[in-house]
Structure formats: C-alpha cells, structure tokens
Design brief:
This protein is an alpha+beta fold. The chain is built from five helices and nine strands.
Amino acid sequence: MPISRLCNAVLVLLLAAGAAHASPVPGYPFVHVTGSAFEAVAPDIGSLDFEIVAVDADPAAARAVLETRVGEVRALMQQLGMEADDAAVREVRQSIRKDDRTAAGAPLYELRCDVHINVSNLANWAPLAGGLLGKPNLDGFASAFDRSDMGSINDELMTQAIRDARRQADVMAAAFGRRVGAVMAATPDGLKNLGTAMGLEREEFRRPRAAASARAQEVDREQLLTVPSLKLRQPVDVIFRLENVPRRTR
C-alpha cells in the first residue's frame, strides 16, 4: 500500500528517547496508528415499538379502544406463533387535549400506551409489521435490529482491527528503518488526549462509533417492512514502541 495512502489513515509520531520528563507524550520513539475493521451482517433478531392512541370525550371509552387494539396485537402475534411474553405494554398515560373539544364543548381525553415487541424470528417481521400497519390508533412506529451473537462478532472485529493496526505499524516502521516493538497503549476509541497534546487530533476521532446493541429508530411505513443489514465498524488506536533494527554481524 502506498505510503501516501497510509498517511491518510494513521498518525506517525517519532520522539527522541531523551524527551523531557514533563512532556505530555511518551518519552520514547513510538508509532501511533489507527486500525479498523468493517463488516455488514444480516440481523437475526429485532424489536418493534409503537404507540396506541385513543381520543374520546369519555375516558372509559378511550381506554376500551386501547384494550381492543392490544387484544388485536396479541391475536396477530399468536397467529404467527409468537410468545405472549414477547410483547410488553407500558403504562397508560391520560391527558386532556387543550385545543380540542366536542361539538357540545366537552373536553376530549387522550389516552396513550407504548407497546414493545421482541421478534426472535425475523421470518415473522414482515407479516407482523404489515399486519399492524393497517390498524387504526397505531402510531410512532420504530424498529431496531441486532444479532444474538453480537458479542463474538465484536470480538472478531476487534481482532481484525488490531491486526490492521499492526500491519500499518510494520509498514511505517520499516519505512523509517525501524521495527515495531511492544504495545505501549491501546484503546477502541481515539487517543484524544495524546492527539490534542500533539496538535494532531483528527476530526473523525470525535465521531461516535456505531453502537453494537440495537436501538429503536423511528421509520416511515415503507421502511418498516424492510430488514436492513447491520453495518459494523470497529476502530482501535494503538501505540507501538519503535526499536532499532539489529545490525547483522559478519
């Protein structure tokens, strides 16, 4: 790989071994590299969140609508062979609409409850989401996807990122007539303090990396039926000590 291309991906810092003790950076020659690994994987589990909203002049009637919709949701899940425990219905919230009233001037009551459904078999995703989209009183759909083996996937990505960092360090060290020594520091995030101290912090170090765990994101009705791939990126920042290449004895 050309050195110019590597320079866009790594920071190389060479310090003399006799640096002052008060220096905010290591007092020995080192190479600072950023390795990374990327993988797109298909999720195998997901979750669906939405609200049930009912408005009526009679709060009891509005609550009856909520209960009816919850019953319909559970019936759909049963048809798909899903467990009843896969759905969680949160506490009902009641409020009065300040700007809306009936024709007779009576206040309108708004009742809301949140529903969370865990989908352990994504073969049920399309029929579940599609069946709920057509129902009244349902709003604020949000979906999240994950992998049941995300821990092992993250471990492998970390290993690949470390290998990438070592490969880059070897190339850079050889270009300076040195060899890579022991690992002196490593972190899955950017070494911000070091970069700031040297005036070499890169903007992308401050961008948060994608979380490994699922997080519900609100989607429109067309996107709700889609199961997207998970794009995972794992960076790693490593400082290697630089050593002189031993001279060959004749």
